[in-house]
Each structure stands twice: as C-alpha cells, then as structure tokens.
Amino acid sequence: MLGDRLNLKSRGESAAKARPTRSAPRPFNRLETYFAWQAETFKDSFRRLRQTPLTSTLTVLVIAIAFTLPMSFHALVKNARQASAGLEATSQISLFLKPDLSDETGRKVAERLKKHPRIAEAGLITKEAGLRELQTHSGFGDALAALDFNPLPAVVSIKPKDSLASPTAMEELLAELRKLPEADFAQFDTEWLMKLRAMLTIADRGVAVFSVLLGFGVVFIVGNTIRLELQNRREEIAVAKLLGATHWFIRRPFLYAGFWYAFLGACLAWLFANLLLLLLRGPATQLAELYGSPYRLSFLSLEETELLLGGSVVLGIAGAWAVVLYHLRRLDPE
Question: Which pTM value belongs to this model?
C-alpha cells in the first residue's frame, strides 16, 4: 500500500513537471482583447437602436434636418460666390471718348490700350455701330433716324484681366483711364458687385451663427434621447454597479449610441443637401447660360463632407457624455 502511494505521488509530480505552465497575458493580447470588447460594444449599441426603430428613426430624422439646413445654406452661398466670381471676371469697362474725336482716333486708342498690362482686351465701338444698336434696342428708332447728325461718341470696350477682380484694383484702373486725354468718362458698374459681396458676407456669418445654434440643438436632442434610455435601463445600471462596474464601463455603450445617432443623422443630412442641389442644378444651369457663363452648380466637397461627419460625431458624443456623466451620479444603487 505504501509503495503504491509513493508511485502515485511520483507520477503526479512527473505530470506536474510535464504540464506547461500558463504564462501571464502579454500586452498585445490585452490590447487585442480591449479592441474586441470595444467592437462588440459598438455593434451592440447599434443593435439596441434597431430594437426601437420608430424612436431611433425619428431621432435620426430630427438630427438630419438640423444638419441639412445650415449645410444647404452654406452650399448655396458657396455657389453664389463662385458664380459672382465668374461674373466679375467677365465685367466690361466702357471708355467714352470725346464727341469730337473720329473713329480713327478711337482705333488708335484701342490699339494702345491692348498693350496695357492690366487690360486683357480692348475693342472699338464706332459711332455708327453705337447708333445702330441704340436704334435697334432703345425703341426710339424713328426719332433717331430723323436726326441729321450722330450724337454718339466712339466707345472703347475694355475687358480687364482676371487678376483685377477686387473693387480696389478696378477703381485704380478706372482712375487711370479717366486721365487719358481722349477720354470723356469711363463707366464700370462696381456698385452691384460690392452690394452682392456684402450680402454674401452677411449670409456667410448668418450660416455660421445658424450652424452653432443648431449644433447646440443636436447636443440637446442626443442628450434627451440618451437620458430616456438611461431611465429605461435604471435597474440594469444599478445591478451593474452592485457587481462592481465602473462608470466608464457603464458609460461606453451610451457614448456609442450618441455616435450612431449623430453619424446616421449626418449621413442623411448629406444626402438631403445634395438632393436639394441636384434639384436646383437644372434651373441654375439655365440661368448661367442666359448670362453666357459656363458655371455649373457644385455639390458638397470632400472637405465639407468630412467636416459634416466629424462635427456631427463630436456633437453626438458630447451630448451623450454630458447626460451620462450627470445621471450616473444620481443612479447610485440604494
């Protein structure tokens, strides 16, 4: 009996020596486990949204509308700026020569101005051509035909270079042209361009203020939705705290829920804004063709899309974080 016990003991010791020892988990395994748990919580938060389709859909739609409004206005203002830049590039200066100067003198002035470093093109409108145009488009053809002389002066039509898009540069060129000895006066309608720029600047700032206000609205929408979910899961959170769960462990799924609400709302807002631009593209193209412009309505760029998605995610997580941080302190188990 004693020999058998000694043999069993020696076998146990040999088996213990032969059994591989369990090593401590390596840092890589811990990191892999952490990311796997994060991914599972991420997917589980999306599954919870699908369990309440009506509530989730309404929340996402409200967020989408809140993002669609400023993005649409921003896109429209951006397109208006691009279109007005094209109009500025095609603006003309009319240099009216003194009435007693002949067309030949006007041609010499036009040839001289073609060599000007700030002028792209210069062409002469003769006195006869100007009178014919006035008779055709003014509605006073019979009265003008009764005149025995031509009261119109020769006009040099000037197209500035594209680099002269600013009103200051245009005013400098106008002042230089007015000093020419052959010039009677020079005309360029810069006032409407200045008014248009002022209105676009006001619109830009309005869109910025509007975006900030609606951004706070998105934070409140996400926060209120997360607050209701916290109330519905009050007992679950209390049990988790009794079992030793940390605030970060409890907070994580709600932060992911805020991410999903904001991200889906931003994707829907991007779709709505581009659909609006698509509906306006046809009329905008027709209007540009009437003005002889090749401009076409542009959609949201990649940078604007990234800003929309990134900003919405930040707002969604911020709203969820603020609400969870506040309510977790009030949901302590009794």
Answer: 0.65
Edge-to-edge strand ranges of the sheet holding 183-187: 119-125, 155-160, 93-97, 183-187
β-bridge mates for residue 186, sequence order: 95
Residues 6+ apart with CB under 8 A from 186: 93, 94, 95, 96, 174, 177, 178
Rounded to an integer, the average pLDDT of 83-106 is 76
167 exposed, middle or buried (CB, 10 Å; 0-12, 13-18, 19+)? middle
Instruction: State the pLDDT at residue 222.
Output: 93
Q: What is the pLDDT of residues 72-93, one digit of tens each?
A: 999 999 888 887 765 554 567 8
What is the phi/psi pair of residue 56, to 5°? Answer: -65, -40
Angle among Cα 78, 82, 88 to the nearest 5 degrees reads 140
Structural domains present in the chain? 42-86+194-328 (no CATH), 92-187 (3.30.70.3040)
Listed in sequence order, the DSSP H helices in the chain are: 2-18, 27-51, 53-89, 103-114, 127-137, 141-145, 167-178, 191-232, 234-242, 247-290, 302-328
